Amino acid sequence: MRTRTKFCALVAILAIAAPIAVSQAPTTPAPAATSNGRLLPTTAAAYADYQGKVTAVMSNKFGSAKELDNALDTFGAPNIDQLSSSWVSYSGILAAQNPEFVKEVRNIDQYYGRERLMLGLQRDLGYAKTLKGGADAMQTVLAANSRDAARVSSAGAFVREQSYTLQKVTWGKEDMRKKKDGVVSTLRSSSKNTRTVDDAVQKLFAGPDLNAMLASFAASPTGSETLWDKVQVFTASAPGKAFSSVAPVTVAQNQLTVVPEFQGTVNRMVTLAALHAIDADQSSADQVKATMADPTTTQCLEAAQMEMFGCLSAVASRSDQAFCLARYGLRVSGEKQRSIAGCVTEIAN
To answer: Is residue 30 classed as helix, strand or coil in its secondary structure?
Structure first.
């Protein structure tokens, strides 16, 4: 009752300040990439694809300059808007696996009506987090991202170690002083392109097993493994096998806190979870798209990418490029500046 009273007061204020009904806003159809017509899974698939490439770079040493170039393109020049929105969307879907939170959102939707709920979620991005189950949903997101941060740190450490060994390899010693400007120019151009998501990943995120996989993972906030460690192989032909190793472990005891600058980002994630719970990513694509567009993450990625390009502009060899990749593209523990991968993982203390 307290939640409903608070919601009613919020809607009353909003109705006076902005009496335009949400249902009057134009909507656009969800992208056709997903068979179930839901915008969040379609968008989130790009983040899953990105994490699949993290798995590859942390598991295999560079065997050639071409392999290093591919890693620089993936982790040094991602499309910022795509990476940001896919990460926020994935986190929103993960938060939506909390049964208590979903039940509360649906109760409010039924009691007050869709129009009022949508208006409340639009005008106050922090509202969803205050609902019953909202704090636990947030903790799931924070725990998952903390593990992802540790994971990209492992990848960064692995690549940094290679930067030292490449100093003794013929192709790693290649003189890049006359080529570095061309490398940076190529990466700048590449960063403006929307990245293609592996078809197998798209099918998994559009399939019926997605919620079962994420619900199981959401129940294991203290495990040391990330979702991407547990789901080792993305396969279109046998998604059940890809999900079979996902199993809940111990429930979290310690509460994580949000890094202050990312409070708004986490609010967006939990709001997206509420929208996902009532299938608004099918019916109200415009509002969902606006919610997933997070300026804090975008600004973080833009700054980190500038650092990445600046580092590459000063390299003398291929081994130096690998060091830039580890430090600014992935993540190195103990570094104060944000890396590209850090911008989409480091949100919890």
So the answer is: coil
Within a domain: residue 28? no
Report residue 117 as tokens.
């709920």
Q: Which range (18-27, 86-95, 152-161) has the least confidence?
A: 18-27
- Which residue reads 């992802």 in tokens? 148
How far is the C-alpha of 98 from the C-alpha of 319, rounded, in Å? 45
CA distance 194 to 192: 7
Residue 65, CA atoms < 13 Å, CB-side half-sphere:
13
Burial class, 108, CB count within 10 angstroms (exposed 0-12 / middle 13-18 / buried 19+): buried
What local confidence, expressed as pLDDT, does residue 202 receive?
A: 83
DSSP E strand stretches across the chain: none
- pLDDT given at position 227: 63
Any domain includes 72: yes
Domain that holds residue 61: 2-6+40-343
Q: Which residues contact 128 (CB under 8 A, 6 or more apart)?
A: 105, 121, 134, 267, 270, 271, 273, 274
**Residue 322 clears pLDDT 50, i.e. is over it:** yes
pLDDT (average), residues 302-312: 96
What does pLDDT average to over the chain?
82
Half-sphere exposure of 149 (CA within 13 A, CB side): 19
- And the tokens for 264? 């708004």
Tokens at 319, concatenated: 């081994």
286-305 average pLDDT score: 96
Q: Assess if residue 194 is contained within a domain.
A: yes
Query: What is the rounded distance in angstroms from the CA atom of residue 285 to the CA atom of residue 270?
Result: 17
Is residue 150 domain-resident?
yes
| Nearest to 128, CA basis, from 24, 277, 286 | 277
Q: What is the pLDDT of residues 189-213, one digit of tens each?
A: 999 999 999 888 888 787 665 665 6
> Is the sign of the CA dihedral 199, 340, 65, 153 positive or negative?
negative
Dist CA 50 CA 234 (whole Å): 12
Domain count, the chain: 1
Secondary structure in 3-state letters for 258-302: ECHHHHHHHHHHHHHHHHHHCCHHHHCHHHHHHHHCCHHHHHHHH
Task: Tell me the pTM.
Answer: 0.82
